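Our preliminary data section would be incomplete without showing what the modeling component actually yields. Below, a chain of 355 amino acids is followed by its predicted structure, encoded as tokens that our downstream tools consume directly.
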Amino acid sequence: MNFTYRSLPWNIVFGAGSVSHLPDELHKAGFSRALVLTTPEQRDQGEWLSNLLGDRAVGLFDQARMHVPVDTVHAAWKEARSARADCTVAFGGGSTTGLGKALMLEHDLPNVAVPTSYAGSEMTNIWGTTQDRKKRTGRSDAVVPKLTVYDPELTISLPVAFSAASGLNAMAQAAVNVATNSLNPIVALMAAEAVRALHEGLPSVVKAPDDIHARSLALYGACLAGASLGTGTTGLHHRLCHTLGGTLNTPHAQTHTVLLPHSIAFNAVAAASGTRRLAAALSTDNAAVELYEFAKRLSAPTSLQQIGVEEADLDEAARVATETPVANPEPVSTNRVRWLLDNAYNGRTPEIPPP
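Predicted structure:
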């Protein structure tokens, strides 16, 4: 066996009630002037967090948006510079974490993450910004948060429907690092454990949203899923999600939810042994079909129509997704991607692609 593995510079505090330690953790990290980042919908929670931080909070920017538009990054940097912030604290999901990453990448402003969803972005070195209906992504270890505080109690207010989609977004990050033909054994261990934890925890979250054990299990799974993506690989699945998000502004978590079963089926022959490992983590014989049925059991979307995609959009999405080569187990072409998108658009049971 031959492989290489390099961990990312993670610094994690995990546990119910752990957000109460954030002021001390910022002190230990050497930060004293934090700009809190939220979406408009989470402004109230951002004000609560600012009060918790006391004098260590120097402002609140509540305009984080999905897919991190470049103009939002500019506006946040203006606020940070005016407040003389020495770090940001991203409170929320992937939108706020992504904004914190962009500020670090472009302006060298350290970021701290307090996730309230299962996005997992805080564990990766992947950044992305959107401009002119195109999403630009890359990897840089510099954008990994200097500190991440995981408090399952903060996820209890997450609506059930979004909890399911967010958890399946995390599942996607892990699944592509199990169902692969370029397996890294250390990454695959984290990824398989993430799939198991999310597969076990999410149904309980949907059934009993206040169940702190279920919330902890799902957040633990999301943490490991992000870690597996951060040190692992991406492929056609993430290319498609970034394409639909950047071009059509589809909701990020729900896009992953719909496309994941079809992406796994697409690669099922080329990554046969990895797909079998994924099926074992899901306690099933057919990983793609179980992911599709699992989404249905969670009442999550299973078709692109449900998340606002029009059939007329599919040709453009297939073209944009294949404008540049993508590393993927199964060969990719515009026609084959268009076939996958048609299946996902119509909510069909996932299938292995024709030759």
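The beta strands are 12-14, 34-37, 57-61, 87-92, 111-115, 126-131, 134-139, 147-150. The CA atoms of residues 318 and 334 lie 6 Å apart. Preliminary results of this kind motivate Aim 1 of the renewal.
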